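Homework-ish question, so no full write-ups if that breaks the rules, but can someone show me the predicted structure for this set?
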Amino acid sequence: MTQAVPVVEGRAIVQDYQVPGSLFTGAKSVRALNGIDFRVEKGKTLAIVGESGSGKSTLARIIALIDAPTGGELRIEGDVVDIRKRRPGPDLRSRVQMVFQNPYGSLNPRQKVGDVLMEPLVINTSVAAAERRDRAEAMLKRVGLQPEHFNRYPHMFSGGQRQRIAIARALMLNPSLLVLDEPVSALDLSVQAQVLNLLADLQDEFHLTYVFVSHDLSVVRYIADEVMVISKGVAVEQGSREAVFANPQHPYTRSLFAATPVTDVAAIRVRIERRTAARAAAR
Amino acid sequence: MALLNIRNLTVRFATATGSFTAVDGIDVQVDRGDVLAIVGESGSGKSVSMLAVMGLLPDSATITADEMTYDGHDMLNLSKAQRRQLIGREITMIFQEPIASLNPSFTVGFQIEEVLRLNLGLSRRAARDKALDLFRDVGIPEPEVKINAYPHQMSGGQCQRVMIAMAIASNPRLLIADEPTTALDVTIQKQILDLLMKLQEDHGMALILITHDMGVVAETADRVVVQYKGKKMEEADVLSLFEAPQHPYTRALLSALPENATGDRLSTVSDFFESEGVR
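A: Not a homework solution, just the prediction itself:
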């Protein structure tokens, strides 16, 4: 058993949303997350899988210290964090950062890329201006962009480049935990491959821990160490990637696997043969 | 003779910085009862070529082709009246965003009955009966209730079923589906693809499926056209395409699939263009 403190740990996380009532119906509360437990060791990737409405983004926002859960306990590197009592300060913000799904919406169109990258340092650190600039340029290079991109605006970049900028921004404070909410689902297949490769390289280089939210099982299979399948706010299945993919236990997990299209040649051959037979029978 | 026959289709858009060629010399043939997938990434022109067939491009587009015929009709030189006889009856189309495709101000029943009355000349009562039949065909639960629902009261998957019901109402011989499942969850995607394939087989209609998703191609297509930057890279039957892709771009796309990762790294399209010296 490992004695190391997990980078992030959640115990019985609950999130309720209040739905305001109307003239004829009273207010009611919707339980978006119902007792979620998880822990992620340093340098590992936990993938949270689910369909729309499952609560996976709600959980991501709680882990990223954006929203406070209604109940349960969240620990970051062993420290209990409760943002209802105290807003997270620079120290905590430097440890946890987030990358959002849509790189068109998550960058301010009126802010130059250099300023996007330097802003976390301005807010959370007392690094001198010249050093801020050096660090931002170094990070631009690290994520595969050029120093001359420093003074450009987000609209001058493609979707994949923008997601690189969003990742660079998240890394400016040297976080230990990165929460990635569907970071590649808005990207084309070939760009998705580049960004996934970049994330894998950065994880090795900076010993990053990832919480990776996705609905795409083929991406999860590629990137995850641990997998949590979540449905209607309940974690129906949790385990190592190998265990979950080789032998899914819960019916919901199995139905997800069954619905995922396969690009396997043998499966295509079976489908074509069945189709040809059906056509011949119809004649 | 092919049902839809397009030779050397080029679509140019007039932009502030000059003419932009979105589709560059594309050939497409679809036979009766065939399922053709057109696959490509954003900007490959895969939607634009089919919008050209439907006559749905804006005036800024210039369409030229050596041939664009549907069942012997020259689609380039149709009068508006002739076009209305074909589009929406013989050839129908469904789109990516099912909720945005429906008018939020009217019930789904009103919208499908409008199609039935205009295209099939049915009376109100007959249109309502036919709409209920269609709702049952596409698997909408409680059709009598749902027919009075507004689009926002239905899920994305149900709205896409309404769109499909509308598209098959006139028994079209060609259905063009532009990314029909991209906005949907994977379990709903499976249901919608299964439905499309079942309707395609039952009605014997030809289906053109525009998609960026190789998984969707693998699960549905008979033949595949791979497009990149407005040009056709490769055309093959689905098995050959996945078994022995001929063009470097197709190989690049397939190896960029996470399930085809070798070791720790995914191949990217630029890796391939560098290694094969193609640009």
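Now go work out the reasoning yourself. Hint: Chain B is about 40% helix and 25% strand.
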